[in-house]
Amino acid sequence: MRSSAFRGRDGWRPSGRCAFFVCDIVDFTDPARSDRVRGHLHQTLYAMVESAFEEAGLPPGDCYQEDRGDGAMVLTPPELDPALLVHPLADLLRGRLLDHNELSAEPARIRLRVALHVGEARSNDKGVVSTDADHVHRLLDAPAFKTALADSGAVLGVLASQRMYDTVIRDARGLIEPGEFRAIDVQVKRTRTTGWLRIRGAPSEHTVPPASDPNETVTGATRQPNAATGTRAEAADGELVQAGPLRSGMPPRAEVRMSAAGLGGRMPTVAELFEVVDRLLDIPLMQTAEGRDRVVESLSHDIRIRIARRAQPQLDGHSIVRTCAEYAHGLAEFVTLVRAYVGNTAQVLALEEAVARIGEPEQ
User: Fold this and answer.
1) Residue 361 clears pLDDT 80, i.e. is over it
2) Which residue of 51, 65, 79, 254 has the fewest CB atoms within a 10 Å radius of its CB?
3) Are both 167 and 310 inside the same structural domain?
4) Total tally of structural domains belonging to the chain
5) Residues 320, 292: contact at Cβ < 8 Å?
């Protein structure tokens, strides 16, 4: 039985081709963080990474892992697809970071740098000996990477090596978008190379314009005080937003998760989500992977690329519905597409009614 926890050096040992995932917590040694807080962050990070790997189809028990104090290095064996590190792993990890930060005080919030690479590694009883392991850590430490993530305010930045980009990302199909990555210079010690950076939740996506009045309403969004960051943007359209600084010269505020508007201003409850999924799978075409694929491929780009697809229909349906619910009008768009493919059947009407009930006030 596969383990859902990393086994460190006790499991698979690298002995050739593998993929590298390394991460570290931004400002882990900040004086505002006590040792107790750092211990909490360390445990929380591993819980997030292990669960994200498991859900992404990368069983932690099959991987090699070394602790880095403020982060981790994980190597995946050659039989596991390195593309899964790009999607869905990175998006799953970002979702966990947003959920954690929403309920955490500032010192306990986590922002994460991730570097990805494919290469060669050998291990002994002391650890990994590998030029490629050194290389991926240089990517993680790149000043341009650190600056870009700090300026963005996003919770997660992913930097892929040139080799990772060339062999995995450049010609990727499906839910990996090569155009989301941009080249940056990496200059660390003797390393001079190019890395490919993707930061979701950066100002280029869903930016709330600056306002001199913290309570000013702009483009459907009202800014309200936030104890952790000083300010917070709450968008009426319910999208994930990168809240811009209130005044020029101030640092960017942290990326925050917004509730889905158009659905009563709240995210669906677990019961509501499962009700929608059940009604979706009552539709014969939606019981097939091909039918669900057709609808997902027709969704808006921003929604489509964030859906972590699953082989089991119930899990796949839940992932699709849950992701659509995070976007303003996402479920409405999804239901419209289902109707376009299936027609106005009794099952489609039942699906529409289940979605409509999400907008009703909670009792």
Assistant:
1) no
2) 79
3) no
4) 2
5) yes
This prediction's pTM? 0.63
- pLDDT tens column, 112-121: 999 999 999 9
Whether 47 and 167 share a structural domain: yes
CATH of the domain at 136: 3.30.70.1230
Q: Could you report the per-residue pLDDT of 242-270, keeping only the tens digit for each?
A: 333 333 444 555 665 544 433 444 577 88
Long-range contacts of 50-57 (CB under 8 A, 24+ apart): 50/4, 50/5, 50/6, 51/4, 51/96, 52/89, 52/92, 52/93, 52/96, 53/89, 54/4, 55/88, 55/92, 55/308, 56/84, 56/85, 56/88, 56/89, 56/92, 56/308, 57/81, 57/84
What value does the mean pLDDT take over residues 148-169? 96
pLDDT per residue as tens digits for the range 307-353: 888 888 998 999 899 889 888 788 999 999 999 999 989 999 999 99
Domain that holds residue 28: 15-199
3-class DSSP string for the chain: CCCCCCCCCCCCCCEEEEEEEEEEECCCCCCCCCHHHHHHHHHHHHHHHHHHHHHCCCCHHHCEEEECCCEEEEEECCCCCCHHHHHHHHHHHHHHHHHHHHCCCHHHCCCEEEEEEEEEEEEECCEEECHHHHHHHHHHCCHHHHHHHHHHCCCEEEEEEHHHHHHHHCCCCCCCCHHHCEEEEEEECCEEEEEEEECCCCCCCCEECCCCCCCCEECCEEEECCCCCCCEEEECCCCCEEECCCCCCCCCCCCECCCCCCCCCCCCCHHHHHHHHHHHHCCHHHHCHHHHHHHHHHCCHHHHCCCCCCCCHHHHHHHHHHHHHCCCCHHHHHHHHHHHHHCCCHHHHHHHHHHHHHCCCCC
Residue 242 belongs to some domain of the structure: no
Please state which of the ranges 33-37, 54-58, 253-257, 352-356 shows the lowest mean pLDDT.
253-257
Q: What count of Cα atoms within 13 Å lies in the side-chain half-sphere of residue 88? A: 22
